[in-house]
Amino acid sequence: MNNINKFSVKRVLSLCKMIIAEQPRVFMMMSLLLLGVLALTFVFININTYNYSSCDFESARIAIYIIFVSYGMIFTSLAYGKMRNKKGRTSFLMLPAMQIEKYIANFIIYVIMYIVMFAVIAYIADIVRMIAMSTFAFHGNGGIYPMQFSTLWCEDTANMMATYLFMQSFYWLGAILWPRNSFIKTYSAITILGLFYVLVGIVLYKLIIGDHYYHLTMFDDEPINHNLIIWSIVTITFVINYTIAYIRLKETDVVQKLL
Amino acid sequence: MDFKDNTKPIYLQLADRLCDSIVSGEYGDDCRLPSVREFAATVEVNANTVMRTYDYLQQSGVIYNKRGIGYFVVEGASKIIRSNRLDSFMNEELPELFERMKLLGISPEELSDRYAQYCTRHKKTNDNNK
Amino acid sequence: MITIEHLTFGYSKRQKPIIDNMELTLEPGRVYGLLGPNGAGKSTLLYLIAGLLTPLSGKVMFDGIDTRRRMPSTLNDIFIVPEEFDLPPIKLSSYVKINSPYYPGFSLDDMKRHLATFGMDDDPNLGKLSMGQKKKVFMAFALACNTKILLMDEPTNGLDIPGKSAFRRFIASNMNDDRLVVISTHQVRDIDNLLDSIVMLNGSKLICSATVNEITDHLAFMTTSSPEMIERALYAQPGLEGTQIIIDNDSSLDTKLELELLFQYALEKGDELNKKLHKNE
Predict the structure, then answer these.
(1) Which residues pair with C235 in a beta bridge?
(2) Which residues have CB under 8 Å from C271's CB, separation 6+?
(3) Among A7, A173, A222, B72, which is disulfide-ready with A241 (CB 3.0 to 4.6 Å)?
(4) Cβ–Cβ of B3/C256 closer than 8 Å?
(5) How many CB atoms lie within 10 A of CB C94?
(6) How far is CA C191 from CA A31, A135, C48, C165, C195, in A?
(7) Is the CB of residue A93 less than 8 Å away from at least one CB of chain C?
(8) Start-to-end CA span in chain C (Å)
């Protein structure tokens, strides 16, 4: 009997299957939509590339970056959709599994599976681009080349993941705080908070540093490791948001006092 | 299931129903009665209430319990039931009837005459009941 | 098996609580009727028992564990059938395949039996069922999970007449010494023969908590036209065949509990009822 109250990977996987099985159409639609967006984007870039044979690399990289992060934010907002109403919350909370298992199962589907899915769909989208280009477009010398995805895996990928994890953690928290209309509410909250912090930052800057330039030279002496700073901020933000989200999940009742 | 008599507790109404079944021969001597749960489902009543019915019938000497197997009709239960019902009629229902008759001013002779006439008219029905 | 200790609950600390310092024990092997006027907190109490709400103070213990902790070992032994619920738009067989592994007591045979009792098709698409049909299917599943605790909120609402009869047969045939059923309802006539214990709420307090036998030991229910009896009665309600009354059961009468009558008496004079029932304590 004690085994039931211990963390079980088997149960987590079973919960993952449940999330997909309960709304298969949503996942299918989101995948197709992503495929469409990526394919159209690649084709568009390809058409505008001077040399028709492949996509302009820079543009493709930027496009993937933007789509990966923003689509990721939207997809994350779909998490915990069951908690939208009282009926859904009842069945979610009454399911005999640990809250942490339910939490991790949602993470696996809405984050990890997303990342994997994105890579696969990007690859398929490229194939679609090649087929589209060779069928409909005229090309000069040689054939159409697939995109060199391997060269995309450079330090830009690290930046892309960092941005994704950073933004996504806010939307993850938003998905638990506001299961209804999660994306809009989170977006508004971030914008308002963001503006607030920027304003506070500007005021503090003026107050503390102001015209005292010599303070800045102290920082100039040491070479700053940009990567370290970025990843520290991302990790701290990620951990804070995910912790608050988990606490909020544990506190969720079937009737919410604050929605 | 609709229960007719407004004031009799359900467990007694169920006991009556089972006794009717025994007297009519539906459950003969040493015949096995439905289990508590089966009977509860049939009449759509709480099993604890049915349990009370079975206990009551046991105490009345109409059924007996074989542990682990079930409840069975006592040999000669029909006679016991009839005798119990006769007692109950004589000691409870009759005095009530007599009270009402007394208030209405009906004499014993009048009652006797009417009962005799009734018996003659329904002789066939009486024969069937024996 | 379920002990409710000093339970207080409300949505706002400033307003009057919905449940105020409630003490209650629910024993296994019983079918409890949970009654009360609209808004008295019946659904709230069911949610609290299931651990779906956080009390302001006090707790609900199920076999020694606080249900609010929502541990899998309590969750897999409690099943709540709410008044309204959603089912995913998938086939029943898929639903059973996905959900039944979480309930170790689940029996597919029982499920088939219950569905048959309700006359439901073998494998419908849950998204295409009417509310009444969904209820039948969900209740069949709920019972097939064979949890120790079964909580039901207005279970007969939306059921057709054969469905109500099937429901009664369900509950009657699936009682056992380990199982505890709590049925919250306004439709007292649908289920009153199924109940062996009554719990009544009114104005955040428990106005009655007793078994049907305890109630009929202390009170007698009858129909009369006698003005003296009506005068002396604890409570009287005129009806079709006479006036229904409740009197003290001084002569050890054995009468049938009239639940609706008792309910109205309790609403009017809850404290008096409580005192009468606990006279010997």
Answers:
(1) C246
(2) C207
(3) A173
(4) yes
(5) 16
(6) 50, 71, 23, 9, 7
(7) yes
(8) 22
The amino acid that residue A45 corresponds to is I
Q: Which residues of C touch A83 (CB under 8 A)?
A: none
Instruction: Return the closest-CA partner of residue C268 out of C183, C198, C207, C180.
Output: C207
Asked if A98 lies within 8 A of C72 by C-beta distance, the reply is yes
Residue after which a domain boundary falls, among C163, C182, C203: C203
Classify residue C186 as exposed, middle or buried by CB count within 10 Å of its CB (0-12, 13-18, 19+).
middle
3-state secondary structure of C214: helix
Provide the domain limits for residue B104. Answer: 78-129
CATH number of the domain enclosing B70: 1.10.10.10
**pLDDT for residue B51 is more than 80:** yes
Q: Which positions ≥6 away from B115 have C-beta within 8 Å?
A: none
Would the CB atoms of C72 and A97 count as touching at under 8 Å? yes
Q: What is the pLDDT of residues A169-199, one digit of tens each?
A: 999 999 999 888 888 888 888 888 888 878 8
B61 shares its domain with B15: yes
Four-CA torsion C156, C162, C165, C167, nearest 10 degrees: -50
Taking CB atoms and an 8 Å limit, are C103 and A96 in contact across chains?
A: yes
Q: Are residues C263 and C178 in the same domain?
A: no
* CATH number for the domain that contains residue C169: 3.40.50.300
Is-contact B47 B41, C-beta < 8 A?
no
Look at residues B9, B34, B6, B11 and name the one whose alpha carbon lies nearest to residue B21. B34
Whole-model pTM? 0.86
